[in-house]
Amino acid sequence: SRMLLLALLALLGPAGCPKTEPLSGSSQEPLFRGADRYDFAIVIPAGAVECFWQFAHQSGNFFFSYEASRATGIANSRNILATASDPNGFQLGVSQHVRGQINFLTKETGFYQLCLDNQQNHFGFMQVYLNFGVYYEGFNTENKQPEERKELNDTLEAIGVSIRKLQLHIFHMWRFYNFARMRKGADSILLESNYNYVNWWSVAQSCVIVLSGALQLCFLKRLFTVQTPSRQQC
Description:
Elements: H1 2-16, E1 37-44, E2 49-56, E3 60-71, E4 80-85, E5 91-97, E6 99-106, E7 110-117, E8 126-135, H2 146-151, H3 155-223
Antiparallel strand pairs: 1-8, 2-7, 3-6, 3-8, 4-5, 4-7
């Protein structure tokens, strides 16, 4: 019975474990190289750490941009700690500012970790815009052999290379547009908070001025009040 149990575990163990690397179909085909990218906003509680994992293949270009748009609490500081680590846990980049970028080349295939640390703000949440992903160059005509360069002279192949280059340029334009949009959103939120701050302080100071004027008038009237004696003197 023990031999039968060991044989059953040997059959189900390695064959039943799925591969963590996404494939483009069957196992004989090469790994699918996509250009996954994400763009969203997240609210990080006080003293909390939020982490994300992005899958990337080897020889890819990883980018990570962030913008802290709003912060609450006593300190009201928008500085946040952002870190990026490889699949083995080795730290690849650190940034601790209001906004920042972390770019690096992926040297191995796996899940890369991105973390945002809000430990500096202990009494308030922070809203952060994120834009991260990975892209692959795909074509590099400078390192091609002469025979392969001759094949690129074909019309369809040249059109394909031009389309891929155009897609790559559009992708970089999209990155810079997102980063500019994050800064614009953060500036609009800052202007709105300053506008509300100035309005509330103006109303409070106006109330204090009116109240102090009424109190001064009351005290001045009491100084000039003449008390009439209760008995009339002859």
